[in-house]
Amino acid sequence: MTLHCLGIEGTAHSFGAGVVTSDGKVLSNEWDMLKPDQGGIHPREASRHHSELGPDIIREAVQKAGIDFQEIDLIAFSRGPGLGPCLRTTATIARTLSLKLEVPLVDVNHCVAHIEIGCLESTFNDPVTVYVSGGNTQIIAFAGGRFRTFGETLDIAIGNMLDVLGRELGMDFPGGPIIEREAKKGGVYHSLPYSVKGMDLSYSGMLTAAKRLYSEGVPIPEICYSVQETSFGMLAEIAERAIAHTKKSELLLTGGVARNNRLTEILSGVAERHEAEFHRVSPSLAGDQGAMIAWNGILQYNAGRQIEVQNSHVLPKWRTDDQDIIWR
Ligand code: AMP
Ligand code: MG
Questions:
Q1: 221 in ligand 1 pocket by Cβ < 6 Å?
Q2: Measured from the CB, is residue 186 less than 6 Å from ligand 1?
Q3: 156 lines ligand 1 (CB under 6 A)
Q4: Is the dihedral angle over the CA atoms 58, 63, 69, 72 positive or is it negative?
Q5: CB atoms inside a 10 Å sphere around CB 295
Q6: I want to staple 199 with a disulfide (CB 3.0 to 4.6 A). Which of 48, 126, 151, 229 is the partner?
Q7: pLDDT over threshold 90, residue 11
Q8: Which of 203, 259, 267 to mutate for ligand 1's pocket (most ligand atoms within 8 Å of CB)?
Q9: What's the CA-to-centroid distance between 261 and ligand 1, angstroms?
Q10: Mean of the per-residue pLDDT values of the chain
Q11: 17 φ, ψ to 5°?
Q12: Which residues sit with Cβ closer than 5 angstroms to ligand 2, an ion?
């Protein structure tokens, strides 16, 4: 029998709902991202966004999937990591639906969901994953029953760095895609801090230095070009080391920043040098959305895992390597 899982995502500024079947078909994937008028994302405002728009997004996802609520077999939700108020709003909606529809509830680690939806799409079995988004920057690979973080940012995520820089340069939110467009006109490279520390990296020094270039009158395209080349080069270095050490033969790029074509080009070059296959998750599945949560819900449920409502408190600091991966 084919199962239908409704996945609900709401770890940060995006709220999403998607329906995925147990044979891996994405039937719908609806989402909305809060765009702050100015400044960064306030957790309370984001959680209000989720509670205001969440019910409609869920109804839309169920409708577009061509099913009705009675046909949902399980509910999956993003339990962490993320912003506390956003997680709690999302979890409350998921628990309510699970109780009302009398179907099981499955808790999903957001980062693990990004990897598994990428594996579904690419048919990769065991990739080194570069997960780059507004809130996360990690190089992950499966080892010893868990997804291990081989390297990560020691301060801000790459997407956050791009968005904050974009704001400083007078761009709309999110800055990432606009920086990509500007960088194409760049061409002149200005030196920026390249901070790789072992398998970890740091982006805050680069952000400060890039802002300084702006105050010195360096043209925006040149700043964007320099920031992209340096920050993506750092990622390539640790991705390459992870591939070389783990000897895995697949490289997966996922998360919102995976939409960047220059990063894709650089990482596919890394894969080629190591004779590994490369896949960039398609834009609709790369960012934060509900389908990835639903797919992970299916994987876990089929492996015998679900959670009782009374134990389903959220985990804002839930680490990628803090979950036994029982379905692999
Ligand atoms: P997520 O957190 O996964 O929803 O992804 C959102 C992040 O992806 C934001 O920081 C965006 O700036 C970033 N992003 C989206 N498109 C691009 C792009 N083309 N280049 C760089 N960053 C991007
Ligand atoms: Mg994400």
A1: no
A2: no
A3: no
A4: negative
A5: 28
A6: 151
A7: yes
A8: 259
A9: 12
A10: 97
A11: -140, 135
A12: 133, 288
**Angle, CA 38 vertex, CA 36 and CA 156 arms, to 5°:** 75
For residue 269, the model assigns a pLDDT of 98
Question: Token pair of 36, please?
Answer: 């702050």
Residue nearest to atom 8 of ligand 1 (CA): 256
The answer to whether the predicted template modeling score (pTM) of the entire model surpasses 0.90 is yes
Give the Å distance between the CA of 114 and the centre of ligand 2. 7
How far apart CA 20 and CA 4 sit, in angstroms, is: 6
How close is the Cα of 88 to the center of ligand 1, in Å? 24
CA 133 to ligand 1 center in whole angstroms: 6
Which pLDDT value is given to residue 37? 73
Residue matched to tokens 């988004």: 133
Which of 162, 179, 282, 288 should be mutated for ligand 1, with most atoms under 8 A from CB? 162
Q: Is 82 in the pocket of ligand 1 (CB under 6 A)?
A: no
Question: What are 73-98's pLDDT values in tens digits?
Answer: 999 999 999 999 999 999 999 999 99
Q: Which two tokens stand for residue 90?
A: 């999302």
C-alpha distance from residue 251 to each of 118, 122, 240 (Å) = 10, 10, 9
Among 81, 66, 59, which residue's Cα sits nearest to residue 131? Answer: 81
Whether 41 shows a pLDDT value over 90: the answer reads no
Ligand approaching nearest to the C-alpha of 157: 1
